[in-house]
């Protein structure tokens, strides 16, 4: 447990050595998944709190909570897959030696700042919104550092990989949302 907490603290500090440690430790994928699952729980709980205070109908609230809980998981798995594909193919450098599991491990730990999304319930609502924006920006920065370390990139190449992966994931999710149902 102390290793997990130490790694989470290092990931939140955007410490490159922590991301390198996680990248090299093949046994840390379970820890990375725990971080993402914890972020999912926090996001779903915050959504439930907001929905209850906004007076959502039970079915609408349940739907919102489920979607919120799935968001970090989809972003982690889909974003990591696209970051790996783009980074290991198009932005690959001579120093790039990686596999998908390395990207999954580092990006999983990059969701550590998202645990602070529990603060979005802090009143007044404008303060909660501001805190949420800061935490999301912090998480995006952590994801760029995670991609940089996993793919052995410089920062501009990691930002480009992150941007391309985010765009591809958005296109896939948007396409899935407008696709006709088969029944």
Largest sheet: none
State the end-to-end CA separation: 47 Å
In terms of quaternary structure, the protein is single chain
Number of helices: 7
Q: Runs with pLDDT <50, length 5+? A: none
Give, in order, the helices and strands: HHHHHHH
**Averaged pLDDT:** 92
Shape: globular
Task: Outline the structure in words.
This protein has 7 helices and no strands. With 183 residues, it is mainly alpha-helical.
Descriptive labels:
single chain; 183 residues; mainly alpha; 7 helices; globular
What is this entry, summarized?
This protein is mostly helical and 183 residues long. The chain has one domain (2-178). The chain is built from seven helices and no strands.
Topology, element by element:
Elements: H1 2-12, H2 16-24, H3 29-54, H4 58-89, H5 100-109, H6 125-150, H7 155-178
């Amino acid at each position: 447990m102390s290793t997990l907490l130490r790694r989470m603290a290092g990931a939140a500090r955007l410490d490159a050595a922590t991301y390198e440690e996680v990248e090299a430790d093949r046994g840390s994928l379970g820890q990375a998944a725990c971080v993402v699952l914890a972020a999912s729980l926090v996001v779903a709980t915050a959504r439930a709190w907001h929905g209850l205070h906004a007076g959502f109908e039970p079915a609408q609230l349940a739907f919102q909570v489920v979607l919120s809980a799935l968001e970090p998981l989809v972003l982690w798995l889909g974003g990591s897959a696209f970051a790996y594909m783009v980074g290991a193919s198009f932005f690959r450098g001579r120093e790039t030696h990686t596999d998908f599991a390395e990207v999954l491990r580092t990006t999983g730990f990059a969701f550590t700042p998202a645990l602070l999304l529990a603060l979005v319930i802090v009143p007044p609502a404008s303060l909660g919104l501001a805190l949420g924006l800061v935490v999301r920006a912090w998480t995006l920065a952590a994801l760029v550092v995670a991609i940089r370390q996993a793919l052995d990139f410089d920062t501009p190449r990691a930002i480009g990989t992150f941007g391309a992966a985010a765009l591809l994931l958005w296109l896939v999710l948007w396409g899935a949302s407008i696709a006709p149902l088969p029944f």
